Amino acid sequence: MVRIFGESPAKKKPAPKKAAAPPGEQGLLLYIHVPFCKSRCRYCSFHSQAFNQVTYAWYLKTLLMEIDIWGRRLQRPAVQTVFFGGGTPSLAPAHDLDRIMAALRQAFRLREDAEISLEANPDTVDAAYFRSLLAMGVNRLSIGVQSLADKDLALLGRTHSARQAVAAFGLARQAGFANIGLDLIWGLPGQRLRHWMDQLKTVTRLKAEHLSCYGLSLEPKTALAGMIKDQALRMPSDRELANMYVSGSEFLESQGYIQYEISNFARMGFFCRHNLGYWEGRDYLGLGPSAVSTIGPRRFTNPRYMDAYDAAVRGGFVGQDFEVLDKAAKIREMVMLALRTTKGLDLREYARASGRDLVKSNQALVQELYKNNLIRIYKGRLRLTKNGMLVSDAIIARLAP
Ligand code: SF4
Question: Least crowded by CB within 10 Å, which of 28, 55, 153, 384?
Fold first, then answer.
């Protein structure tokens, strides 16, 4: 046994505990929006623009100013999670991300155990990039794989191949990432159940800690929505979609993934703390163009376009134009977010917040949903079944009108 400084193991001091946050100070969730992509994917409606050096340099400068403003305004609050999302955050050079991390550490108190996630696209990364991310404190990766079939990737307008996606995962693992999530999309035009299940079988062999499986949503004004409208492509039927969702979820569970939200699965201990924070209704601060924040009852959205965003930051009025969420809106949101999770809605908490008994005041509806195997009530929590999750929007709209 190797002794360190001659100390015997018996005398070794206990390892210092990880930062225990003072009560009531779990910390903010921080979201950093990086609004640049190589090109536009055909299904995407997020706010992003083609990467160009001049706009990117402008963005970086403004973002660093915004970080400083919020640190001072909120008096350097504790932060429990940081999430770099986009866009394609991995288009940002590592030394710039390092500057952003340093600015965050200066402006906020990042908890020692903070979860720091970054979304990466397979064709924008290499081994050195991953090592740099780890060195600056990024401890969770979310890789945008979307499909392991090149035909699907071409249809979606992705700029990488399936082989590149698998290679990016391998490089991240080799670099030392112990918490990697992969994003996939199901329900693509022309997709059949067997094809989706084959994808899942292949992806589970990679043994990622986390899998997000999003059903394709046809957003208005996207190229893909146009192709469906023009009947150039055909979406799977509702029955096929339901089979993909239910069979896919059951398969992932059989492989040791726990479903903790409608579209999210993870091995024990690897739930995404940042997203869970959203669903649990915690405060979050979004930085960057178009980022949304909710702090207490105040909700505000940053301007979408660079010139307006820059003007708001320079003028110091970023976040000053907010809406106040009233009690009814807060309760509606509580129901909507809790029902997305497999833990479901705590009925006592709902009664405390609203002064109403959800089950009694919706008796006929609750009975109907229960009889149709769409909801279950267990140990004081109302949650959606897998079939219920398939029609979650409709159920939530009726329970939280
Ligand atoms: S990489 Fe992501 S954010 Fe960028 S266009 Fe594609 S889906 Fe949208």
Answer: 55
Q: Is any atom of ligand 1 closer than 6 Å to the C-beta of 277?
A: no
d(CA 77, CA 107): 8
**Binding site membership of 41 for ligand 1 (Cβ less than 6 Å):** yes
pTM (predicted TM-score): 0.92
Per-residue pLDDT of the chain (401 residues; tens, 9 = 90+): 222 232 233 333 344 444 444 444 789 999 999 999 999 999 998 888 999 999 999 999 999 999 999 999 999 999 999 999 999 999 999 999 999 999 999 999 999 999 999 999 999 999 999 999 999 999 999 999 999 999 999 999 999 999 999 999 999 999 999 999 999 999 999 999 999 999 999 999 999 999 999 999 999 889 999 999 888 888 999 999 999 999 999 999 999 999 999 999 999 999 999 999 999 999 999 999 999 999 999 999 999 999 999 999 999 999 999 999 999 999 999 999 999 999 999 999 999 999 999 999 999 999 999 999 999 999 999 999 999 999 999 999 999 87
Give the DSSP letter of residue 282: -
Q: Where are the domains of the chain?
A: 23-279, 327-401
Indicate the fold that domain 23-279 takes in CATH: TIM Barrel (3.20.20)
In ligand 1, which atom is closest to the CA atom of 86? 3
CATH 1.10.1200.10 fits 327-401, yes or no: no
Is 37's C-beta closer than 6 angstroms to any atom of ligand 1? yes
CB-side neighbour CA atoms (13 Å) of 384: 25
The neighbouring-strand residues paired with 34 are: 86
